[in-house]
């Protein structure tokens, strides 16, 4: 008889989708003896700028780099982020509206503890990032999904959003450029969302992790550039995408000071803050943008996007090229039963893995998500 007591809450949600798919990949590779061409995870794979790596090495060697960093932003980090918001978006934020995160996912998960009581409802997109729903359930709140449909170009219908509100609504997740669809939002659309939030006295949490990954001339806005947005909104950002610091785990939250303070209080119980060298590195990356490197990164992703798109067309998938994020959101052929069956069949037959759209919600049942941050040197051997 086992003496291990496993919390009942773990039975209330499935294993993270990419952990499940990784197990399937291992099975297929063992069975076929062939490495799988994996278009599943959205892992930024462009090596960071050498300029930033050299700076990081310098910061690590500083005498106090190994000290505990404290529970908030060091001045160099907050000053850099404040300056960046003003220069990049024309948005004004102040020091008590800024908090460093151990990667954006730190904020995505723990903001539930800061803002939602057990039984509260959190609105989130369908299809949407699976990372919103898991922590919601884990911490005793309830996911309420609002639909993003092809009829609305996978954009938000304010009427549909309004119908989902209730007295139990804690906040609303908004995500553009979107994971998984690659859809983007304009400043005008964000203005409408801010007005909606003010009208209904509800908080918006804007996931802007892909703001610096855009294509074909599109420049992603920040919700904080909308006048008065900090009254009803916070924004989560990520250095994983903008600087390829994915494994370093560096992000931030900015906006409404009450929300930032509440999240900071939660995190003071759960971690010891973002390391001093990483805060210094992030500040340096914000104040010393390596444009040559960034342009190279975007060109690499865009080239791969276009090559992958041509291969997907030959499979009978239909889609629009994304203007942002790291994914192609493609509709499966009408002859396919469903997205999971389609993806598992492709994995077994061609040793190619796409992510079933159903992993992102019921509105993804006829779709697949295809990551473009993949080494495609051997793509002709598979597709």
Structural summary, described in words:
With 383 residues, this protein is α/β, with parallel strands linked by helices. The protein folds into two domains: 8-47 and 292-382, Alpha-Beta Complex (Aspartate Aminotransferase, domain 1), CATH 3.90.1150.10; 50-287, 3-Layer(aba) Sandwich (Aspartate Aminotransferase, domain 2). It is 39% helix and 14% strand. It has 13 helices and twelve strands. Strands 2-8-7-6-5-3-4 form a seven-stranded mixed sheet, with helices on both faces. A three-stranded antiparallel sheet has the order 9-12-11, with helices on one face. The protein has a two-stranded parallel sheet with strand order 1-10. Strand 5, helix 7 and strand 6 (204-207) form a beta-alpha-beta unit. Helix 4 crosses helix 9. The longest helix is centred in the C-terminal third of the chain and has 24 residues, at 291-314.
